[in-house]
């Protein structure tokens, strides 16, 4: 739904749980979002950034989340509608 209603440059936040499907989903979402993330790198301890190979879509785990919780957030910035138009 997000690729149908998002404006160019839009952001996306999705709450999900760590599972085997999370990384393939992140890769799929990263086809539509291209960053940037410069402001996050300057905020130390604002949130835990899980290791991801791309800068446009990340998994974040808020500091307030219990360490034993599987709760994570997929955060994407910089929606690029060109690829989405091909899927409509």
Describe, in plain words, how this protein is organized in 3D.
This protein has helices at 2-5, 22-29, 38-41, 81-87; strands at 12-17, 47-49, 57-62, 71-76. The protein is α+β, with helices and mostly antiparallel strands. The chain has a single domain (2-87), classed as Rossmann fold (3-Layer(aba) Sandwich), CATH 3.40.50.150. The longest helix has 8 residues, at 22-29. It is elongated and about 40 Å long.
Order of adjacent strands in the largest pleated sheet: 1-4-3-2
Given the structure, what is the number of helices?
A: 4
Number of domains: 1
Give the % helix.
25-40%
How many E strands?
4
* Chain-averaged pLDDT: 77
* CATH topology grouping: Rossmann fold
β-strand amount = 15-25%
Q: What is the rounded distance between the termini?
A: 11 Å
Shape: elongated
CATH class: Alpha Beta
Structural class: alpha+beta
**Name of the CATH superfamily:** Vaccinia Virus protein VP39
Instruction: Name the poorly predicted regions.
Output: 39-54
Largest sheet: 4 strands, antiparallel
Instruction: Quickly give the CATH architecture.
Output: 3-Layer(aba) Sandwich
């Amino acid at each position: 739904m997000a690729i149908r209603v998002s404006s160019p440059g839009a952001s996306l936040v999705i709450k999900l749980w760590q599972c085997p499907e999370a990384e393939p989903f992140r890769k799929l979402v990263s086809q539509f979002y291209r960053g940037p993330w410069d402001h996050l790198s300057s905020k130390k301890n604002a949130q835990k950034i899980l290791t991801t190979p791309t800068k446009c879509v990340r998994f974040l785990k808020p500091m307030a989340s219990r360490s034993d919780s599987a709760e994570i957030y997929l955060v994407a910035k910089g929606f690029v509608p060109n690829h989405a138009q091909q899927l409509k």
